[in-house]
Amino acid sequence: MRVGGGGRHPLGTLGDMHAPSAFPSAFVVGEALVDIVVDGDSTVEHPGGSPMNVAYGLARLGVTTTLRTQIAQDQRGRALEEHLAPVGVVLDPASRSAEHTSTAVATIQPDRHAEYEFDIEWAPGELALPDGVGLVHTGSIASALRPGSDDVAALFAESRPRALLSFDPNVRPGVTPDREAVLATVDALASVVHVLKLSDEDAAWLHPGLLLDEVVDRYLEAGATLVAVTRGAEGVLVATATDRLSLPSQPVDVVDTIGAGDSFMSGLLFAILSRGLADGVRSGVLGRGDLEAVAATALASARVTVSRAGANPPTPDELAAALG
């Protein structure tokens, strides 16, 4: 099976990028939960949740990152905090407000993809952007499940003049099955954000019958300045108003796909920040070479993750090796 980055790109090593101390800081809003992974007769618990995975991936790559989520002060909540601490994710103190820590049962199928069943609490209340933040990201359940999704939408509308905004719908029909309601939420956020990433499965569920290029056109016209559609083994379609690229994959032995899309997302955002491209993305001015470079970095990040169990994104050295 082929998953991940490849094709021609101007990246050699991460040495071309800016020093980590120069990165804008990130504020990630959304669910943190425990993945209960069922693989045959084995059951193992892992930290999970799409926004939390993105926060972890960014911090692991050297981006100062704060996470605003909703967990309980229970055993699973403490396990999530212990997971985040070593990479330096700062947990917003208001995150410790849930009655119980959310869970997702991920059952590995014979083709090694995961199917999910969720027990989620998401009602964070009023959200405020911390001072000095250069990137705000959200996605998945946090962007679609009320009442918290309304708080997220308000935060993003308020933050657009101040930061680069990123969104990954990462739809979960098992949690929010009303497609029209989810589509309305996605469309509303897509009109505010700069970076929109979705999978081909997301696109098929949200827009049945539309070609991927038509989905990309829809969101560029809505106001997003960079749209990426991941295509699993086929690579990625990535576009701005002026350029559109299809980057192929490279071979990798897949252990499972848990967290692959989140690792793509954190790799994409890391590449934008580390190359000093945030202002260019916000203004819609991004050269073709830079577009190819950030997409290649994102694909390489996902490729590392699928090569091992669970949502385990790369370190800087691992990402450099994957790009090498």
TrEMBL record:
Organism phylogeny: Bacteria, Bacillati, Actinomycetota, Actinomycetes, Micrococcales
Domain Carbohydrate kinase PfkB: 37-317
Pfam families assigned: PfkB
A GO molecular function held by the record: kinase activity
Family: Belongs to the carbohydrate kinase PfkB family.
Keywords: ATP-binding, Kinase, Nucleotide-binding, Transferase
Chain ranges passing through the membrane: none
Protein name per its UniProtKB record: Carbohydrate kinase
Naturally occurring in which organism (per UniProt): Frondihabitans peucedani
PANTHER family named among the record's database cross-references: HEXOKINASE FAMILY MEMBER, PSEUDOURIDINE KINASE-RELATED
InterPro entries according to UniProt: Carboh/pur_kinase_PfkB_CS, PfkB_Carbo_kinase, PfkB_dom, Ribokinase-like
